[in-house]
């Protein structure tokens, strides 16, 4: 199940809030080596965790398994403020365009050796469903060029926004992905799971395993 | 027109290419300005894959025909230094790095020597990983290859779009085999079966005959490829048809 929470809603749940920022630290600072974001408290927080950010959270067995953050492009976001060398011309923006950042699958949930894990595809199904329900049909993602192939496999319409660049030992290309109902169907059939993944309300307190 | 606009124009054209051959032609149209005039992309066969099956792994191919024949006939895939380099490195590289870096056994030397006979003196190769973790190897070659580092990145990005388009065409041809359509009644019956109701109980709840509820469950079982009702319920839950 994937929960979509505003920053305010996330802050009302200290257990979740801490798990989210700790997972982000673990992955983006410790694994990927984004040292600009280093902090002694082991929590990764930036200026874009503002009141219009949307935090999408996948819970498995009472644990935080996956996370991504959606940012509106109607105000400053990563591409325009931090990664400005990744676009040529004017980057797309508007109420139907959001930026997907901090896509993360917790280490214990990366089941595929090289492929995308089921938590990973749940995050994808989640943002597509979330978008379609609120007239959002495009996301900007700054990802490794490898992901272009996967996006096309899922029948997103993909378009690069600029040249690929090398950051540290990582290649990154800013890409605009456009999606519709057909994309959602393809994502669902690839996952062998045709029901909605977007949950209403709030997850249970972390650490509580639900009897099934 | 800027270099970037040309790239975008190319991607637009790709979206309208409806056969693998058209995708190949578009891609080589872009890469030939860097001396890359031949192309091969496909999933890497396990060593020892029978020759007859090796061609099934090909996604895009515009290799000199005779060279492809020889490559398959002599089972070069198991000795090609470009292939083994790619399996190890899992990053883009130029062919000449592969033949330098690897202790060349007799047959690897032969592969590269033979390749130059077909005007494939150098090239670039890089692996891509699909959603389900399969490796797609992309290899572009030509007689005189001249690439700066930025151009290298650019060629690999446009190639990735081309492979993605080829894979879309591939799945469209296969159609979606995995999609199962359950009727609302079949779904309802399964939902009640999931909470332990018998056929008779289900018929009472839904106001249908016992025979009809049995029929719905049998149909659902068949569609889900299950051997009994327990498996049908489990499969329906896994696929998200019932909860």
TrEMBL record, chain A:
Q: Which PROSITE patterns match?
A: AUTOINDUCER_SYNTH_2
The record's annotation in Pfam families points to: Autoind_synth
InterPro entries from the entry?
Answer: Acyl_CoA_acyltransferase, Autoind_synthase
Is this entry keyworded Cell membrane? no
Listed A to Z, the keywords are:
Autoinducer synthesis, Quorum sensing, S-adenosyl-L-methionine, Transferase
Molecular-function GO terms, alphabetical: N-acyl homoserine lactone synthase activity
Give the EC number(s) listed in the UniProt record.
Answer: 2.3.1.184
GO biological process terms on file: quorum sensing; signal transduction
Q: What class of enzyme is it?
A: transferase
For this protein, what reaction is catalysed?
a fatty acyl-[ACP] + S-adenosyl-L-methionine = an N-acyl-L-homoserine lactone + S-methyl-5'-thioadenosine + holo-[ACP] + H(+)
Per the record, the similarity remark reads: Belongs to the autoinducer synthase family.
The name this protein goes by in its record: Acyl-homoserine-lactone synthase
Which organism is this entry from? Mesorhizobium tianshanense
TrEMBL record, chain B:
Which Pfam family, giving just one, matches this sequence? GerE
Q: Which residues form the HTH luxR-type domain?
A: 175-240
Q: Which PROSITE patterns match?
A: HTH_LUXR_2
Q: Entry's InterPro entries?
A: Sig_transdc_resp-reg_C-effctor, TF_LuxR_autoind-bd_dom, TF_LuxR_autoind-bd_dom_sf, Tscrpt_reg_LuxR_C, WH-like_DNA-bd_sf
The lineage's top-level taxon is Bacteria
Instruction: State one molecular function term (GO).
Output: DNA binding
Give GO terms for biological process.
Answer: regulation of DNA-templated transcription
Q: Which UniProt keywords apply?
A: DNA-binding, Transcription, Transcription regulation
- Name of the protein this chain belongs to: Transcriptional regulator
Which species is this UniProt entry from?
Mesorhizobium tianshanense
Q: What is the lineage of its organism?
A: Bacteria, Pseudomonadati, Pseudomonadota, Alphaproteobacteria, Hyphomicrobiales
């Amino acid at each position: 199940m994937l929960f979509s929470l505003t920053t305010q809603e996330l802050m009302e749940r200290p257990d979740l809030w801490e798990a989210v920022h700790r997972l982000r630290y673990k992955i983006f600072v410790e694994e990927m080596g984004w040292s600009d974001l280093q902090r002694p408290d082991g929590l990764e927080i930036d200026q874009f965790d503002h009141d219009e950010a949307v935090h999408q959270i996948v819970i498995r067995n009472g644990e935080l398994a996956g996370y991504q953050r959606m940012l509106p492009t109607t105000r400053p976001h990563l591409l325009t403020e931090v990664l400005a060398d990744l676009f040529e011309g004017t980057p797309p923006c508007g109420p139907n365009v959001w930026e997907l950042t901090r896509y993360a699958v917790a280490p214990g949930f990366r089941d595929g050796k090289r492929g995308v894990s089921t938590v990973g595809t749940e995050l994808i199904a989640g943002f597509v469903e979330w978008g379609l329900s609120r007239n959002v049909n495009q996301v900007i993602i700054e990802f490794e060029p490898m992901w272009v192939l996967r996006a096309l496999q899922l029948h997103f319409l993909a378009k690069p926004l600029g040249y690929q660049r090398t950051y540290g030992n990582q290649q990154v290309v800013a890409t605009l992905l456009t999606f519709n109902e057909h994309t959602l169907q393809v994502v669902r059939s690839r996952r062998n799971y045709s029901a909605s993944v977007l949950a209403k309300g709030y997850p249970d307190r972390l650490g509580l395993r639900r009897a099934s | 027109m800027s270099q970037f606009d040309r790239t975008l124009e190319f991607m637009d054209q790709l979206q309208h290419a409806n056969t693998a051959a058209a995708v190949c032609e578009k891609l080589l149209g872009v890469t030939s300005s860097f001396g890359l005039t031949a192309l091969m992309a496909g999933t890497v066969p396990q060593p020892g894959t029978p020759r007859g099956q090796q061609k099934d792994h090909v996604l895009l191919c515009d290799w000199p025909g005779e060279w492809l024949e020889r490559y398959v006939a002599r089972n070069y895939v198991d000795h090609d230094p470009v292939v083994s380099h790619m399996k190890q490195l899992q990053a883009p590289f130029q062919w000449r790095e592969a033949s330098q870096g690897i202790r060349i056994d007799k047959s690897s030397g032969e592969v590269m020597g033979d390749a130059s006979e077909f005007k494939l003196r150098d090239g670039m190769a890089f692996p891509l990983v699909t959603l389900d973790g399969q490796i797609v190897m992309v290899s572009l070659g030509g007689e005189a290859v001249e690439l700066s580092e930025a151009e290298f990145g650019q060629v690999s990005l446009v190639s990735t779009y081309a492979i993605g388009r080829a894979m879309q065409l591939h799945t469209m041809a296969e159609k979606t085999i995995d999609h199962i359509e359950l009727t609302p009644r079949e779904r309802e019956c399964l939902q009640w079966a999931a909470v332990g109701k018998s056929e008779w109980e289900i018929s009472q709840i839904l106001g249908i005959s016992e025979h009809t509820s049995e029929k719905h469950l049998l149909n659902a079982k068949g569609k889900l490829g299950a051997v009994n009702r327990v498996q049908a319920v489990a499969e329906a839950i896994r696929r998200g048809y019932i909860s």
